[in-house]
Specification:
This protein is of the alpha/beta class and 357 residues long. The chain has three domains: 142 residues, Rossmann fold, CATH 3.40.50; 83 residues, 3-Layer(aba) Sandwich (Rossmann fold), CATH 3.40.50; 78 residues, 3-Layer(aba) Sandwich (Rossmann fold), CATH 3.40.50. Helix 14 links the parallel strand 11 and strand 12. Helix 2 crosses helix 3 and helix 3 runs parallel beside helix 15.
Length: 357
């Protein structure tokens, strides 16, 4: 049995509306035939714990079409851990956190990259593959962190703290990366900061990730006040309620959460680290304090673990759907292009990060 907690209606309403629109598209555009059922049967068996059988006829025609078309067009689909199971497990060639996606983007041999994530991830893929076609299925798949800071803000911070290196979370625009010395992800933040040998660094844009770094290093951290709209809404009281409602639960939290939430957790780490923790330790019952599709995806890979699902949805990630991925492959919309004067310094910041890790 899997526990669950009620999602916020403000998140569910727009997501549900988009889901209904996508289901309508599926029912009117692509038929669920015997050939489609046969071709996708192994995938249905894999995701049956997360996707009800009733929904499969809506997903399967798109899954079959996407998997066929990406081979024809020499395309690879990269999916973030927050994507829904029908994307993460059924059409993605590679799935992971921001660091894993950056590494995979750097070494893929495909001519086309479709980013099932958000725009800054597609920009990072383009920075590392300037000669390839990089597509994002929905240009409105943004990020509250990326929107929280501008290149002008970074310049102003440099002026106030001369000599301090600028360390920027990959959850940022190409323009902000271009004003930075090096990038980080939640997987490698402390390691990258300490590799600089500086007494103080400017760490942007996530305040809570910066405070997490400060707890784990002697380097003085100058932070910004950006927040992830998913992670900032968790509270320490919620964590205590999980433990009271579901005794024996192991709590895993993302470092983008507020400090009091991290204090209540049994383990703090990136989405990759949380997934690895579950695979290695096999806790009987776990709650992942992060975007709720993450639990769905990890649960499929760990059927012996019970997942308690706090449901904070990322409205930006949920803009990426199977119909939009197929349309992106068919029409090569929407292409990511970055001006050369921005791409060159932004690429250096990402490549410096990859060299450290």
């Amino acid at each position: 049995m899997t526990g669950s907690l009620a999602p916020d209606p403000r998140q569910i309403k727009p997501y549900a509306k988009r889901a209904r629109e996508d289901r309508d598209q599926m029912m009117t555009m692509l038929p669920y035939t015997q050939d489609v059922a046969k071709a996708t049967a192994p995938l249905l068996a894999k995701v049956s714990r997360a996707i009800p059988a009733l929904e499969w006829p809506h997903h399967a025609p798109y899954i079959e079409a996407i998997n066929r078309l990406k081979k024809e067009k020499n395309a690879v689909i990269l999916a973030h851990n927050y994507q829904t199971p029908e994307i993460y497990h059924c059409v993605a060639d590679f799935a992971g956190d921001s660091l894993q996606l950056a590494r995979e983007a750097a070494r893929t041999g495909a001519a086309r990259i479709v980013m099932a994530g958000v725009v800054f991830m597609a920009e990072t893929a383009k920075l590392l593959n300037p000669e390839k076609t990089v597509l994002i299925p929905d240009l409105e798949a943004g990020c509250s962190l990326a929107a929280s800071i501008t290149a002008g803000d970074v310049k102003a911070l440099r002026a106030r703290h001369p000599g301090a290196p600028v360390v920027t979370y990959v959850n940022s625009s190409a323009e902000v990366k271009a004003e930075s010395d090096i990038c980080i992800t939640s997987s490698n933040a402390v390691r990258v900061v300490e590799s600089l040998g500086a007494a103080e660094v400017i760490c942007l844009p996530d305040e809570y990730l910066a405070r997490y770094i400060a707890r784990n290093t002697k380097v003085r951290i100058i932070n910004w006040r950006g927040h992830c709209e998913v992670h900032e809404r968790f509270t320490a009281r919620e964590i205590r309620d999980y433990r009271a409602s579901f005794p024996g639960t192991v709590v895993l939290a993302h470092p983008e959460c507020p400090p009091d939430v991290l204090d209540e957790a049994d383990f703090v780490g990136s989405t990759y680290a949380m997934s690895a923790y579950v695979r290695k330790n096999r806790p009987p019952r776990v709650v992942m304090v992060t975007e709720c599709s993450m639990s769905d995806n990890v649960a499929i890979e760990n059927p012996d673990v019970e997942f308690i699902r706090p449901c904070n949805l990322c409205p930006h990630m949920k803009r990426i759907t199977l119909p939009k991925i197929l349309e992106s492959l068919q029409t090569e919309r929407h292409r990511i292009d970055i001006a050369p004067e921005i791409a060159a310094p932004a690429r250096r910041a990402v490549e410096r990060m990859l060299a450290v890790t």
